Amino acid sequence: MDGNGRWAKARGKERIQGHIEGVNSVRACVEAAARAGVRWLSLYAFSEENWNRPAAEVQALMKLMVQALNNEIDNLVKNGIRLRVLGNLERLGPELQSLIESMSAKTEGGERMTLVIFLSYSGRWDILQAVKRASSELSAQQLEALDQDGFSRFLVTSGIPDPDLLIRTSGEQRISNYLLWQCAYTEFYYTDTLWPDFREPQLLEALEAYAGRDRRYGKVK
Ligand code: IPE
Ligand code: MG
Predict the structure, then answer these.
(1) Domains of the chain (ranges, CATH numbers)
(2) In sequence order, which ranges of 79-120 are alpha helices (DSSP H)?
(3) Whose CA is nearest to atom 6 of ligand 1?
(4) Where would I find the beta strands (DSSP E) of 64-134?
(5) Counting atoms of ligand 1 from 1, which one is nearest the CA of 9?
(6) Which atom of ligand 1 is nearest to the CA of 19?
(7) Whole-Å CA distances, 6 to 22, 64, 84, 159, 184
(8) Structural element, H or E, at residue 84
(9) Which of 26, 32, 111, 184 stands 20 to 30 A from 82 (CA)?
(10) What is the average pLDDT across 102-111?
(11) Per-residue pLDDT tens for 155-189?
(12) Is the pLDDT confidence value at 151 over 90?
């Protein structure tokens, strides 16, 4: 979700106003994705690198996150949406950590779609924590026999399918340390639309584009 700051700047507003409007896009896209039959929707909300932004912006974003979770919980439950939050959550404050835990528990029964929010996440962090866990939990023999599927189970996305489609807004064309391992065969979709302007029509356009892709996974047809 990129372009909140530019959206605000273009309107002569503070960056935080762009983030606030971005939350409205989150709500719109979550509901639209569920309606469209998407089973897993992941949002890259805050990267590990985002911790390096000015403290005031980080603080405002965290406050917004707490507000959004509190405001949306009933909607998620009503819409059958299960929430999971993944990332280096130890870096979050205790309030947000316990809120995440209780929200996840409350939405556990949601069977229509799983919403995965990546918070304080980076792909390299994920791979590194997986290596560390695998090497401490497995014997030398098990490590020797470890294959790609086996290794995937140590990533924080264990049990979650690899993304079929990655949508990048605001004209940027880079992966920015997102799901590095998991995106090996993901289809990428780039749009100039800034995240606060990305709503149901733009999501459906992206899904339409994805439907036209020919996925060969390195093979010939
Ligand atoms: C994305 O919008 C939101 C977060 C990373 C939290 P940006 O804040 O990166 O917006 P731009 O890139 O400055 O426009
Ligand atoms: Mg940005």
Answers:
(1) 4-211 (3.40.1180.10)
(2) 94-106
(3) 46
(4) 81-86, 113-121
(5) 14
(6) 3
(7) 12, 18, 28, 35, 30
(8) strand 81-86
(9) 184
(10) 97
(11) 999 999 999 999 999 999 999 999 999 999 999 99
(12) yes
